Amino acid sequence: xxxxxxxxxxxxxxxxxxxxxxxxxxxxxxxxxxxxxxxxxxxxxxxxxxxxxxxxxxxxxxxxxxxxxxxxxxxxxxxxxxxxxxxxxxxxxxxxxxxxxxxxxxxxxxxxxxxxxxxxxxxxxxxxxxxxxxxxxxxxxxxxxxxxxxxxxxxxxxxxxxxxxxxxxxxxxxxxxxxxxxxxxxxxxxxxxxxxxxxxxxxxxxxxxxxxxxxxxxxxxxxxxxxxxxxxxxxxxxxxxxxxxxxxxxxxxxxxxxxxxxxxxxxxxxxxxxxxxxxxxxxxxxxxxxxxxxxxxxxxxxxxxxxxxxxxxxxxxxxxxxxxxxxxxxxxxxxxxxxxxxxxxxxxxxxxxxxxxxxxxxxxxxxxxxxxxxxxxxxxxxxxxxxxxxxxxxxxxxxxxxxxxxxxxxxxxxxxxxxxxxxxxx
Amino acid sequence: xxxxxxxxxxxxxxxxxxxxxxxxxxxxxxxxxxxxxxxxxxxxxxxxxxxxxxxxxxxxxxxxxxxxxxxxxxxxxxxxxxxxxxxxxxxxxxxxxxxxxxxxxxxxxxxxxxxxxxxxxxxxxxxxxxxxxxxxxxxxxxxxxxxxxxxxxxxxxxxxxxxxxxxxxxxxxxxxxxxxxxxxxxxxxxxxxxxxxxxxxxxxxxxxxxxxxxxxxxxxxxxxxxxxxxxxxxxxxxxxxxxxxxxxxxxxxxxxxxxxxxxxxxxxxxxxxxxxxxxxxxxxxxxxxxxxxxxxxxxxxxxxxxxxxxxxxxxxxxxxxxxxxxxxxxxxxxxxxx
Lengths: 426, 338
Hints:
The complex is a heterodimer.
Chain A: H1 23-31, H2 36-60, H3 70-75, H4 86-96, H5 104-122, H6 131-146, E1 148-149, H7 151-174, H8 176-205, E2 209-210, H9 220-246, H10 251-266, H11 269-283, H12 292-318, H13 321-329, H14 334-364, H15 376-384, H16 394-422
Antiparallel strand pairs in A: 1-2
Chain B: H1 2-20, H2 24-31, E1 34-38, E2 47-48, E3 54-55, H3 57-70, E4 76-80, H4 86-91, E5 97-98, H5 106-110, E6 114-116, E7 121-123, E8 125-130, E9 144-149, H6 153-164, E10 169-174, H7 177-185, E11 191-195, H8 196-205, E12 212-214, E13 222-224, E14 227-229, H9 233-252, H10 259-263, H11 269-275, H12 281-285, H13 291-299, H14 302-309
């Protein structure tokens, strides 16, 4: 039975896959030209994108970076589109507002320290001890940005040390309630009566001072970041507490939390900003100048906290009741069960919502231009109010959009990283 | 009704606050800085330059007052105010003075309990059209489409003007100045109307200003000037007479250039009284003798300020018009320094 005329004895060499079944062509075939309708849609889309991109690039790619006014751009025959000269000329202002030029290193330093202070909160690979620096950071940043004597922030910090010391000493002796009450009272007395004179006296002996900078002179992206970051940092704990309060069995706590959340959520942010900028002045005794920036930070924080509380409540509601019961069955008290069992899971579920909330808060900071603070949007109006740059529009807003995008995109990427890291499902 | 009650309550609270403290003049002198409410960016009126130094005709008023009261034209804290918060910021005491292209009207003066102390620019609503439309008078605009900002007095003025002249128009309602200019340039409307100073500055920012013409008709009165809180007459006097000093200096020929020479004494008794070398006008005002000379040294007399901020040598290029001295056919007229 040897009717085989040919037997191959060696393997054929591997052939490359047929054209159209691999690489870019396969990708194009499956993703863009998989049918007549899809092919037409793809071609139309590509043409539209091409036209748009061409127009935008032709408009944007201009040798106008060195020109000093809109008129100069009009008169320069090489410039047919964007007039970018405004960006380098006003870059400093868009970043720092009217912060004195010689002192701007303080803003830069605060920013770098901020990155260092946030890192231990964001990433768990960094030694835990670094969190102490994060706690100190607000005082350092306050001193760097607003200046004046270093002993002011230190005196404020000393209040916390006094409270902590009193609690440590009294708790074993007189019990937790007496300890905490005495500690808080002592700290309040220190802040109200002793902190200011003490810092003045110490500063008289060892003067360590930076030049004072008024809030009025802080502007630009610096202002947005200050409002945004303090709002985010302060609203998170408040929001969590409000969410817990809303779920509480204690009637008064529950009513207060629900009332606060529903009130703040029922009022537009811009109304609250007007309250901060105008109405508060009428209620405070004449002559008191309660810093506008501080008022705005408080309002933004409360606003964001109310929204955050609802996001966290969503996370709490999504947990199966079994988790609560398991915590009870383990004999944990309320705070322990929240801290060890409930919150880690609830917060994990709420990460996308929380981060969207923060991104929204950061972008909402531009609303302060309506009450006359010179954030980047307010500064753009001011810059367009000069004779040189009147009529310029897209260049400034594109630049601003890019600045904001860097911050919000970083936040959004971090939230995705965090979700991946905390993923425990299968 | 409810709203006006609310506003007057606020205003009353603000006045009470004003009475409770010492006079504004004393407060300003004690603080060593003048808190001046100004615009958030209007060409020629108030805007910060690249170094954050505020410039403009409204800003110049603040600097002149700071120079007269505090002997330092830079002792001013500029508080940029939007049109929404400007009056409440003044009544609540957040600023000592509002110099922010604010039209002097009956209701603002009376109902909002504010005191207008003078006029630093006589404005009025005008029309701008493309040159190739061949229009030379607003009376030829029957049936035109007009770009107009909604919710402003210009909207009402426009309707009044067209109605009283028996003409019709088609409004293109628009929200902001920037948008209005863009729509006009894009040809969405035949005519753009707003205050004539704003028209001039818009025109100066166009690629080809000569393609557009501002029609001669001015259809409304918009006297712009600084204002202070009701109930502090001494402070109102200071601001009013610094304003008058700027105007009178131009009439008397006192400029920032010849200030030093004239301060040594002249044969003209009014100039001498003005410069403080004769009489005691400064003392009456609660200031020292050379207050007016210092006000002029801040940025020159009214004419010099006008020329350097919005005048014909600037890109905005406004003619003096109504804002010339009364001796030149304008409306700028200061009561005598006597």
